[in-house]
Specification:
Shape of chain A: globular
Oligomer: homodimer
Number of helices of chain A: 10
Radius of gyration of chain A: 16 Å
Structural class of chain A: alpha/beta
Distance between the termini of chain A: 34 Å
Helix content of chain A: 40-55%
């Protein structure tokens, strides 16, 4: 597939690299078409890897991974505009972490709303699937590293969730549970504070949660 | 041990019954010393089971399980008064669910505060340990029913957490992880929305989360 990855942080680079390894054509999008991280990544990624603006990455793809920082996500979407996203499937990996308020960061949006829902509202034609946000980026693309946790996904479009499930099985995810509509992103985003506490206890982030007793 | 259980809902009755089975002396506390649920429970529980007011249950015990409804918890504590709790260990099983705002209920307190922290603030001498809140009450006392999930606990007093860990191992909990201070109750309480989503998907609540990859 032609896939756009918006964001050049660790999450964007890790996911984009995995997608290249799986044979997809990936455009990494950034604010600047000459973003240095994207340039290094594209050079290392070979012929299937390219870079561009956020808008380029959204336009020249069939599916989009949203890997921007939580606080920048809605602004990036508004800058790109809903038309570039069209009716595409958008995998929303973002977390609304507010790093301006000390450590551990609280969430900017939670409980009665979620960043996943705000992304879907900002992109009314796109089919947003919330996924992967609750684990470390290395676990995202290699769940075996964390002894195969369960992945909780949600979104309003059943076909979009099927496509994302298919794609993420290639990442190595065995058990993927569909929680229902995008409103359930509240729950998966609210998972993050306990994960941050556990990361502090363990001294690493290569863990996850497996649903047992279902 | 002499244990007080505050609350006569499903959680209070289930925990109090388990404690009796384990040989503890249990006083179930309610607003009224003649509460009918507590009376039935005490009659069925035998010589080690008794009932009383919330204050009785706090006073005549060495350890207290707080099993009140989220919205009533702080009011019950203020009515009983901090002196009745003294420096005892208080196991806070409550969730700040706001059932006045539709289904699924959001949390009344979250993200930058938690009910666990508020309980500790209201009981400055007591040693509050947040535990068990994120699972169904039948799983609380029989984690094998949910294939042995991980229990996350937190609290400011190390000895209190040791005592609670010892007690909950008797409930059947194998893996108990101490997240640190009571501030981490934010995370364990924020687990609840995803759990409610999963309960809706599964059609039952006899599941849990096992931490993998630690």
């Amino acid at each position: 597939m032609k896939i756009g990855v918006l964001g050049t942080g660790m999450v964007g680079v890790t996911i984009a690299t995995k997608l290249i390894q799986l044979g997809h054509h990936v455009t990494m999008g950034a604010r600047s078409p000459e973003n240095q991280t994207a340039a290094h990544w594209a050079k290392a990624g070979g012929v299937n890897a390219s870079q561009g603006t956020f808008t380029d990455a959204a336009l020249y793809s069939e599916l989009i991974f949203l890997c921007t920082k939580g606080e920048a996500t809605l602004e990036v979407i508004h800058t790109v505009g809903r038309d570039a996203f069209g009716e595409k499937v958008v995998v929303d990996v973002t977390n609304p972490l507010d790093f301006s308020r000390g450590t551990p960061p609280p969430l900017m949006i939670c409980n009665t709303d979620s960043l996943g829902e705000e992304v879907q509202k900002a992109l009314p034609y796109a089919r947003v699937v919330k996924a992967l946000n609750a684990v470390n980026c290395e676990v995202m693309v290699n769940p075996a590293q964390a002894e195969n946790p369960t992945l909780l996904i949600c979104g309003n479009d059943a076909d979009a969730k099927k496509l994302v499930t298919f794609l993420l099985r290639d990442f190595g995810w065995d058990e993927i549970i569909d929680l229902g509509g995008i409103k359930n992103a509240r729950g998966t985003e609210m998972f993050v504070p306990a994960s941050l506490s556990l990361a502090h206890v363990f001294g690493h982030s290569h863990f996850g949660f497996r649903v047992v007793g279902r």
